[in-house]
Amino acid sequence: MSSPLTRPCPAERSSSTVALSDPDAAFSALCEDMAEHGLTPERPSAGCARVEVDGMTLSLQTSANHLVIDVTAPGASGLFFLKEAVTQHILRIDAAAGAAMTWSDGGAADRPPNFQEGRVEGVDHLGDDLLRLDLSVADAGAFARDGLHVKAMIPARHDRPPVWPRVAANGTTIWPKGADELHVRYYTLRRVDVEAGRVWIDVVLHPGGRIAGWCETARPGARIGLMGPGGGALPAGDGPALIVGDRTALPAIARLLEDMPDAPRATVVVPRVRLRDGGAYLPDSTHDLVELDPTIFTDPSALSEAVGDAARLAGGPARAWFGGEFDAALAMRRLFRQELGLSKGTQMSVAYWRRGRVTDASAADEH
What are the backbone dihedrals phi and psi of residue 272, each rounded to the nearest 5 degrees, phi first? Predict the structure, then answer.
């Protein structure tokens, strides 16, 4: 069975006391970093700050020669993500202090808590340039919450067995280098079956894509690393939604449609796509489906005009989501904000790939 995008997860907590020559400067720099990301921390007293976003909290408190950091998040994966993000900020402020950091819930580990190894069970060619990778995993339930995207990874050199990432004592990921380097790209989890211990990833085939090429020749038992999930969900709200995406975003759009009620109605703008068996890729729903010529999705100006017309015809959205090419994502961001009047928290534009860059599609930028 398909699982919902989010499930309740018990809160996890950790803290770190960082020795710094100037903790007040580090405190100010961290607060400025949060502000640059659109987060406004509460400042209950001098040298104290707290911010909460997506169920995660970060608290800072200065003391003599130290900065005390406290973090909470829903689940071990969320906590790992937050700890690593905080440590990376400290490393930029004071490299020596960041390298020496430790966390109260533990240090070095053989694997990140959000990492699992997937084993190929089969590959199904859905269409001429679309295939489905069927993977077995030890804990499919971990992929049934917290987002749509995973980092998929294979050895950059196909003649070597995979060496997976580890965790340093300061909470950051240690990626293998040299001959053991990994090729890493983001993909959407098309389906998660918790009971069967399986996940499905749909891959658009294209020349030069390393992971796409690997999938074409993958045999049962082949191993691929997965980290996540995270990101990609439709902005929260009860109002009508506008959902737009090119071929690379179809797996995410299918997940969004499966996990949202039919009312209020959404306007879904996608390229015309038919599978090898003649069927439609997207699941049946009562939402308004607008199918465009696929070439429009490679022309940001034409796409903006077509999507704007569809949105205004539907009466205007209360929230919006886009996935596709980088320049198109920027154009959609402008459309959502400037023409449709959507605020930061009600729209998301995700770049899955970039024209002129021969690589696998990835969720490179979220705006």
Answer: -70, 120
- C-alpha 4: how far from its chain's center? 16
- Residues (pLDDT < 70) of the chain are 1-10, 356-367
pLDDT for res 9: 61
**E-state strands within 64-213:** 66-74, 115-127, 130-136, 149-155, 166-167, 173-174, 182-193, 198-204
CA-to-CA distance for 328 and 248, rounded, in angstroms? Answer: 13
How many other C-beta atoms can be found within 10 angstroms of the C-beta atom of residue 53? 12
Report the phi/psi class of residue 38: left, alpha or beta, with left for phi > 0 and alpha for psi in -120 to 50. left
| Sign of torsion over alpha carbons 167, 172, 176, 182 | positive
Residue 231, classed as helix, strand or coil, is: strand
Tokens of 222: 């082949």
Full-model pTM: 0.85
Q: What is the pLDDT of residue 310?
A: 96
Q: Are 61 and 48 in contact (CB under 8 A)?
A: yes
Encoded tokens for 156 = 């950059």
pLDDT at position 357 = 59
**pLDDT number for residue 198:** 98
pLDDT value of position 367: 28
Distance CA 336, CA 178 (A): 43
Q: Please report how many Cα atoms fall inside a 13 Å half-sphere around the Cα of residue 45, on the Cβ side.
A: 3
The alpha carbon dihedral of 140, 250, 268, 338 has a sign of positive
